[in-house]
Design a protein that fits this description.
The protein is of the alpha+beta class. The protein has helices spanning 14-31, 38-45, 49-61, 78-90, 92-108, 150-161, 190-203, 245-265, and strands spanning 8-9, 12-13, 65-68, 73-76, 111-118, 121-128, 143-145, 206-209, 216-224, 230-239. α2 (38-45) crosses α3 and α5 runs antiparallel to α8 (245-265). The termini are far apart.
Length: 275
């Protein structure tokens, strides 16, 4: 039987190195705030454009990335979303949360989401749309800056309280750079954000009014696992015209109770809120 050459260089086969580079390219496309082009990806990774073009071609053929022929820009492809869907369905978190998201969206009428913290952003793991035609339209796989979202602030508050701030260093008070403004009420000061996170930690829930974009309101509460660690957040989001101050007060306890029920299914034993 003919043996295949491993072409080992510095302890790593060329094949394995190619896979690593392809994954780097995939991450560069997925983590970019805008759809990147060939030159931008190559520059970010420090790779020759010919190498990146070859890797992008392979990823495109496998439908892991999609290229806009007119603008020569890349975005994540359908194959990746299919795998992500299968992965989240295989997780206990998705199974524990799905029925609660459905009930919450039906009860309140607005879009319900399940989100996790990834660095300084929140990632939407699952969503259930509400009954209104005009409302919040998040998408599974979408990422948003954590400081401008109700779920993000809930998760940042929990991370700080639970001593998990290494991946979120940009949000501490020692950084001089201001946080990006996305909506008219976005918190851009690190010191202000730190005070807000402490209030959220004590309250056990969060509302973000026109922080992500004008006219959008979202309410979130934390989901904890069997060890009491916050692993996700549940939210309800929609237009300010339907989620005014009075309605937020009535919806917030429902969001919190839904998050607590999901937490129970994950084994959390934290006493339920009285509200």
């Amino acid at each position: 039987m003919k043996q295949r050459s491993t072409n080992v260089r510095n302890g790593t086969s060329l094949g394995a190195r190619s896979v690593e580079r392809a994954l780097d390219v995939l991450r560069a496309v997925g983590e970019s705030r805008v759809e990147p082009g060939l030159s931008e990806i190559a520059g970010d990774l420090g790779l020759h454009k010919t190498t990146v073009f070859r890797l992008l071609g392979a990823l495109e053929r496998a439908e892991f990335v999609v290229r806009d022929d007119d603008r020569q820009r890349y975005q994540l492809g359908p194959a990746l979303y299919r795998l992500a869907t299968q992965a989240r369905r295989a997780s206990g978190l998705h199974d524990a949360a799905r029925s609660e998201l459905e009930a919450l969206a039906h009860d309140v009428g607005e879009t319900a989401t399940l989100e996790v913290l990834v660095g300084t952003e929140v990632l939407i793991l699952d969503e259930v749309h509400g009954r209104f035609l005009i409302g919040g339209t998040p998408e599974v796989g979408m990422r948003w800056p954590a400081h401008a979202t109700s779920t993000g602030k809930v998760l940042l508050a929990a991370a700080a309280a639970e001593g998990r701030t290494n991946n979120n260093a940009k949000h501490n008070g020692t950084s001089r750079a201001r946080l990006a403004r996305l909506g008219p009420n976005t918190i851009t000061s690190h010191a202000t954000l730190a005070r807000e996170l402490e209030k959220i930690r004590r309250a056990g829930w969060c509302v973000a009014t026109e922080e992500l974009e004008p006219g959008f309101v979202a309410i979130a509460a934390p989901v904890r696992n069997a060890s009491g660690r916050t692993v996700a957040a549940v939210s309800i989001g929609g237009p300010k015209s339907r989620l005014g101050t009075t309605r937020v007060r009535s919806v917030a306890p429902r969001v919190r109770r839904a998050a607590e029920r999901i937490s129970r299914r994950l084994g959390d034993l934290t006493p339920a809120s009285v509200s």
